[in-house]
Amino acid sequence: MGAMSWPSESELNVIRTKVAEMSGKDSKEVRIVVSPYRICPLGAHIDHQGGIVSAMTINKGILLGFVPSDDSQVLLQSGQFKGEVRFRVDEWLPRNTSSTKEECNWGNYARGALYALQKRGNHIKQGIVGFVCGTEGLDSSGLSSSAAVGVAYLLAFESANKLIISSAENIEYDRLIENEYLGLKNGILDQSAILLSSYGCLTCMNCKTKEHRLVRSPDLNGNHINGRKKQFSILLAFSGLKQALITNPGYNSRVAECREAARVLLQASGNEGLEPLLSNVEPEAYEEHKCKLDPNLAKRAEHYFSENKRVVKGVEAWARGNMEDFGKLISASGLSSIQNYESGCEPLIQLYEILVKAPGVYGARFSGAGFRGCCIAFVDADRALDAALFIWREYSKLQPKLASQIDDESMVHICDAGDCARII
Ligand code: GLA
């Protein structure tokens, strides 16, 4: 089964050996958090407004090997970033104010996890010695690596301190890491997908009520079902652009525009007492008062209301196993991100347009917020290789410089769905 191909035993052994070296403990004592990346086929940019989103994890992500350190000291090394991170869990960590340069600050996610746990009254006494690494070539590309890392540290601290914490609480703790500690005004899509997903299902999350359900597709229960072959693979296509969301002002400014649109619509419909979130605006009130929005705000609101409808229809198509309809809605969502939400940039938009035309592709869109480098597609599993070749060839023609910065094998990854975050 696809979900089981990651992590491999050899990947796990490399991490066990590394942590054993760092801590002086036996490699059998090393625990490993497996924290997958997520994709969001439908429901982009609407989680922070309390919308309904759909998500699943893939069989790639973050691995964090650790042992409890026997005192309050935290010592971390990374497979991707240089240097060592050291701090103590019994010191109070005020909100992060340091520069956002990723290379120097990779330890902020661990500090943020401690901040969130402490802020919600958990008594953390035990530090960890740990080694964290992400799937090669996939960091900072829009696959929620920051939430996967945040969740990984939360689970490691909780395990080292024998705390039993529910997924709902961890969703909230990761929100604290991102919204408060790191200052990104994002919603709860990423960590919900990472903590709640289950192989074979689409996770459908109402970000206002926090209720979720796992929707099974009739055709995703293993590679063969009822004599039929596996229906789809997931393609990740990289543009060569990399930038962490917290270093890009685009994300938070779009969130502010959505809130302003909600404020105008709530005021126009006599509901100014409600929090300015688009989920607090009834669709009828939106239709009646949208003419009062200035053009940019009108586009943001149009994205929100049309995306909510696409999610509902898409989940129905998924449950029927109708990948064609599901895919068309994904591509329509991608178009709305470009035209209404106005995220993305030229190379990413070109990549999206190539993916939509690639052989066997059901549907495609930017991954995540669309402010950095990756697009995703659902593709007929039998045609995934042809599609990957087509994408590589066409993108190299349009963006030779960016394409030349990516290894040929890393430009398009063919993945499968994954499972939720866990400790092994
Ligand atoms: C990022 C954010 C999420 C969500 C997506 C866009 O991944 O972290 O909260 O808003 O972008 O859908």
UniProtKB/TrEMBL annotation:
GO terms for biological process: galactose metabolic process. Residues 108-196 form the GHMP kinase N-terminal domain. One of its GO terms (molecular function) is metal ion binding. InterPro entries: Galactokinase, GHMP_kinase_C_dom, GHMP_kinase_C_sf, GHMP_kinase_N_dom, Mevalonate/galactokinase, Ribosomal_Su5_D2-typ_SF, Ribsml_uS5_D2-typ_fold_subgr. Its EC number is 2.7.1.44. It holds the Pfam family GHMP_kinases_N. Keywords: ATP-binding, Carbohydrate metabolism, Kinase, Magnesium, Metal-binding, Nucleotide-binding, Transferase. GO terms for cellular component: cytosol. The keyword DNA-binding does not apply. Residues 317-388 form the GHMP kinase C-terminal domain. This is Galactokinase.
